[in-house]
Every structure is written in C-alpha cells, then in structure tokens.
Amino acid sequence: MEIIIHFLHKIAPIFLAHGIVGIIAFCVRLYMQGGKFRKQTDETGKVAIVTGGNTGLGRETVMELARRGATVYMACRSKEKGERARKEIVKRTGNPNVFSRECDLSSLDSIRQFAADFKKEQSQLHVLINNAGVFWEPRRLTKEGFEMHLGVNHIGHFLLTNLLLDVLERTAPSRVVVVASKAHERGQIHVEDMHGQDFYDEGVAYCQSKLANILFARELAKRLEGTGVTVNALNPGIADTEIARNMIFFQTKFAQTLLRPLLWSVMKTPRNGAQTTLYAALDPDLAKVSGQYFSDCKLAHLAPAALDDQMANWLWAQSEKWAQIAL
Ligand SMILES: NC(=O)C1=CN([C@@H]2O[C@H](COP(=O)(O)OP(=O)(O)OC[C@H]3O[C@@H](n4cnc5c(N)ncnc54)[C@H](OP(=O)(O)O)[C@@H]3O)[C@@H](O)[C@H]2O)C=CC1
Ligand SMILES: CC1=C(/C=C/C(C)=C/C=C/C(C)=C/C=O)C(C)(C)CCC1
C-alpha cells in the first residue's frame, strides 16, 4: 500500500502538469479558431464556383456550400485530385450537384477554356470564390512567363473573374469573394520588377500577390458599383492546410512530427479557416456591402498600401495587358 501511495505522489504532479498544459492548449485552440459563420441559409438554386476546391480552405468551402444545397463548380488544376475531392464531398453532403472541372490558373488558355465550358453548362453564377493560391514557390514562371505567385494568385483570378463578369451581372445580386491574407500588410507592388527578375524572394512575391488580390477586389468593386455584383476580400487566418507544402522546412520530420502537433493549438482547422469566406459569400447582411475586407467574420483594417486607389488603377491596366483582355 505504501509503495502505491509513494508511486502516486511521484506521478500525480506529472499528470497535473500535463493536464494543466493540455487545458491551456485547448483554451488557446478554442480562442484561435476565430469567428464562425453561424447563420443557417438555404442556397438551393444558387450556383457557385470555388477555385482550388479540392483541398484546404477551398474544399471546406465547397463542402459547406454543398451542404446548404448550392450547385458548386470546383475549378481545380488537377483533374484527378478534383474528382477525388468531388466524390468525397458528394458522399458526405448528399448533394449530387457538385462538379469538378479543370482550371489551371497558371495557364490563360486553361482559364479561358474553363470559363467557356462553364457558360455552356450554366446561365447563372451567384458566387465566384477566388480561393486557389500558391505560397513560398521557388522562382517559377506560369505558361505565359509570369512569376508564379503573381500569375496564379492574381493574374489568373483577374482573367477568370473578368471572363465571368457577364454571367455574374446577369445573375445579380451576385458576389465575388477574394481570399487574400493578412500577409498583404507586408506587401509592396514592385512596379519596376513585378515578376521578380532583378530580385526574388518567396515571401516578398507571396505578399505582393496578396496585396494585388485586395487592390483588385477594391478596384473591381468600384467598377461594378450599381450592377448588383459585390466584391469583397478577406483574411482566413492561419489554417493547417497544404499551403506551406513548398517550404523545405515544412516537409522535414521535425516540422511534421514535433512542430505540427505543437502548433496544433494556434492554427485554425481548415473548416474554421473557411468561415470568413462563407461569411463573405453567404451572409444576407452583406447583400449590399462591397469593396470591404474581412477577418474572423467581421470588418478588418487594411494596410495603407491596400488603400492606394492610384495603384489599384495602375494594377488593373497592367493586368488587362498581362491577361490579354481587350475590354
Ligand atoms: N492556410 C493559411 O494559413 C492561409 C491561406 N491563405 C489563402 O487561402 C487560400 C487557400 O489556401 P489553402 O487552402 O490554405 O492552401 P492549400 O495549398 O491547401 O490549397 C490551395 C489550392 O489552390 C490550388 N492551386 C494551386 N495552384 C493552382 C493553379 N495553378 N490552378 C488552380 N488551382 C491551383 C491547389 O491545387 P492542388 O491541390 O492541385 O495543388 C489547392 O486546391 C490561398 O489563396 C491562400 O493564399 C491566406 C492566409 C493564410
Ligand atoms: C503546419 C506547419 C507549418 C505551417 C505553416 C502554415 C500553414 C503557414 C501558412 C502561412 C500563410 C499562408 C500565411 C499567409 O498568408 C510550419 C510552421 C511551416 C512548420 C510546422 C508545421
């Protein structure tokens, strides 16, 4: 008996310490999951497109839209990954109106093909969600020679949105949702070297592309005033998705087996990371709100660079040339 009591005395503090750490980690995690979009809406009859819908935040966004009855098109760069995710979403939501289509945002031809095929299948589009994104890419170029972050995150979505504007306007009230990031605060538009030819840094390129996302959203909102099409940008927060896949450090055993569980309490789940996207796409209170930026399901502050209207205008004109749009 004495041995047992002695043993309990030894291990009790260890259990207690672990318990306290566990409770703190759990509370931090609860707090870090951020704002939730809790309103129940019925999206039956609505048509939505989500780029990069096969994984991460995009997949969770498609899942929730499908649960609410919408017809959802997943615009994916990989046919196989898209189809696999689609089958899983249909199975889990019971909504058969989820479609996966090829759309490689690093190829203008692929984007044009996607938009043309979509318009042949659907005459309406209520929500376009520009979600797909690349992060921490080594210097690589898109098919047309654009730096990959700028090309996929901004130029690809710029072209896609412009190609779908006629159907969005016809469907109005409709919405464009741009998944940007708090990383825009560190961004700068490098007017003289947009494609990182003279100087390249993965973080600089990503932040520039996310700033471009917001300048684009604000400029488009201005151009669409009075049409019934709203445009808003958002920061999803840090979520545990595949976004960091290109970081060599991310792939190490140390990061995956030790750091990832340690960071468990401070990162959002993909489902919670998708909440602000769903809020911007679906909240009835935002029906007439346009040109804004949200984080954790509420209005958020933009960095001064994102409020530079002259730069937004310059970027728009430049993007028209890159995307070869004759307007
Ligand atoms: N997770 C986070 O902490 C944060 C994310 N964000 C933003 O959220 C968005 C979603 O990221 P997240 O879900 O985390 O990342 P994931 O890497 O998990 O998902 C990114 C998606 O984009 C797709 N994609 C990448 N390149 C292309 C392309 N050329 N054409 C079409 N689709 C492409 C990917 O396709 P595939 O699977 O085939 O590679 C994938 O479906 C991004 O815009 C990101 O910048 C912003 C702030 C923080
Ligand atoms: C899971 C994991 C990581 C994830 C990082 C993520 C998910 C970063 C995303 C940042 C973005 C995209 C910010 C701004 O837009 C680390 C820290 C690399 C290493 C340990 C394991």
From TrEMBL:
Name of the top EC class for this enzyme: oxidoreductase
Stated name of the protein: NADP-retinol dehydrogenase
UniProt keyword annotations, A-Z: Lipid metabolism, Membrane, NADP, Oxidoreductase, Transmembrane, Transmembrane helix
GO MF, one annotated term: all-trans-retinol dehydrogenase (NADP+) activity
Pfam families from the UniProt entry: adh_short (PF00106)
Entries under Gene3D superfamilies matching the protein: NAD(P)-binding Rossmann-like Domain (3.40.50.720)
Segments crossing the lipid bilayer: 12-32
Catalyzed reactions: all-trans-retinol + NADP(+) = all-trans-retinal + NADPH + H(+)
Enzyme Commission code: 1.1.1.300
Pathway: Cofactor metabolism; retinol metabolism
Source species: Drosophila gunungcola (fruit fly)
Domain of life: Eukaryota
